[in-house]
Design goal:
The chain is built from no helices and seven strands. It has one domain. It is globular, with a radius of gyration of 14 Å. The chain has about 100 residues and is mostly beta strands. The model has no long low-confidence stretch (mean pLDDT about 90).
Length: about 100
C-alpha cells in the first residue's frame, strides 16, 4: 500500500518465475497499480517488467516505486503520477535482491 493510503501495487509474475522449459513460462511479468475506492479496487496503471520480480517498495511521497528483480540482479525504478507508470532508471546489483524495504520516518 502506498504511504498516502490511496493505492496498492501488485507484482504479476505471469509464469516469468517458471523454468523456460515450462509450458507456463513467460519472459515478462507485469507491475500493476490499483486505486483504493472504498471497499473496491480500480486498476490505474500497468507496465511490463522483466522476469521473476519479487518485492516492491513505495517512496515516501507515493510517487516512485522500487521493483526488485532476482533474475536480472537489478532494481527498476518507476515514476507514478497517479495515472501512469513511467520507467525511470535501473540500479544494477552484484547479486539478485531477495528483500526490499524503505526506511520509515
Amino acid at each position: 500500500m502506498s504511504p498516502d493510503g490511496r493505492y496498492v501495487v501488485v507484482n504479476v509474475n505471469s509464469g516469468s518465475n517458471a523454468s523456460p522449459s515450462s509450458v507456463r513460462y513467460r519472459h515478462d511479468g507485469l507491475l500493476q497499480v490499483w486505486r483504493i475506492e472504498g471497499s473496491r479496487l480500480a486498476k490505474v496503471a500497468e507496465a511490463p517488467v522483466g522476469g521473476w520480480r519479487q518485492g516492491i517498495a513505495w517512496s515516501k511521497d507515493s510517487r516512485s516505486l522500487l521493483v526488485q528483480c532476482m533474475v536480472g540482479s537489478v532494481i527498476d525504478v518507476f515514476g507514478f503520477d497517479g495515472r501512469a507508470l513511467r520507467p525511470m532508471t535501473t540500479i544494477e546489483l552484484p547479486a539478485g535482491p531477495a528483500g526490499i524495504r524503505t526506511a520509515e520516518p
